[in-house]
Each structure stands twice: as structure tokens, then as C-alpha cells.
């Protein structure tokens, strides 16, 4: 169950959010190798963020998954999500951090139980 939580200081309207959610869902599913039905994406726009001493457009993300992550996958995810944020929100890739967590299945709750 990959879950990507994105925070940005850029206000995100409903149309842009929908585009980001769709693009990120497809990208995470394909790159991590999990069905889209398992992928959850959250976007939090208009969050106060200062990065490198400025409040210019920036973003932070955390991706948690039960398997499927590793150095080459993480690099591809970082690049792809950065491209989505650049295209949709004009956030330069140098103003985006993403943290990856590969967790055991028992650490993910779903449907009243764990995976």
C-alpha cells in the first residue's frame, strides 16, 4: 500500500489537485509495481514552508510502502514526482525533498486489520 503525502506552500485549487492526484497515483503505481487500487495520494496546499531561507514555492513529500522501494526506484520516484510538481505547481526540483519509508506489512493498517 504505497501512500504519498505531499505538502507545499503553493495554494492548490481543486482542478490542479485532481490532476496531481491522478498523475501521482499512476506514477507511484507503475514505478513501485503496485496496483493503483492500493495507492493513496494526499496533497496539502498552502502550508507555510520556508526552504533555503525563502518562502518561494517548495514542497516536501513522504512515501510509505510495504515493499517495492530501493535506491533505483526511489530515484525514479523522486524525479517523477518532482516533474509533476514542476509542471503543475511550478516548484523547481531543487526546492523539493521526498523521504521514503519501506515498512513491514504489519505496520500498515487497513480495513480494520493490518496487511
UniProtKB/TrEMBL annotation:
Pfam families: MIF (PF01187). The keyword Secreted applies. Coiled coil: none annotated. The keyword Secreted applies. Gene3D superfamilies: Macrophage Migration Inhibitory Factor. One of its GO terms (molecular function) is cytokine activity. Its main location: secreted. It catalyses: L-dopachrome = 5,6-dihydroxyindole-2-carboxylate; 3-phenylpyruvate = enol-phenylpyruvate. It comes from the Eukaryota. Its EC number is 5.3.2.1, 5.3.3.12. It is found in: Secreted. It is an enzyme of class 5 (isomerase). Keywords: Cytokine, Isomerase, Secreted. GO terms for cellular component: extracellular space. Signal peptide: none annotated. Belongs to the MIF family. This is L-dopachrome isomerase. It comes from Quercus lobata. The gene is LOC115975716.
Amino acid at each position: 500500500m504505497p501512500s504519498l503525502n505531499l505538502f507545499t506552500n503553493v495554494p492548490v485549487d481543486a482542478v490542479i489537485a485532481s490532476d496531481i492526484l491522478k498523475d501521482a497515483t499512476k506514477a507511484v503505481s507503475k514505478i513501485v509495481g503496485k496496483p493503483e487500487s492500493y495507492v493513496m495520494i494526499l496533497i496539502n496546499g498552502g502550508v507555510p514552508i520556508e526552504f533555503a531561507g525563502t518562502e518561494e514555492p517548495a514542497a516536501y513529500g513522504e512515501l510509505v510502502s510495504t515493499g517495492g522501494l530501493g535506491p533505483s526506484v526511489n530515484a525514479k520516484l523522486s524525479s517523477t514526482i518532482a516533474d509533476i510538481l514542476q509542471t503543475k505547481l511550478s516548484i523547481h526540483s531543487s526546492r523539493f525533498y521526498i523521504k521514503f519509508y519501506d515498512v513491514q506489512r504489519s505496520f500498515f493498517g487497513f480495513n480494520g486489520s493490518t496487511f
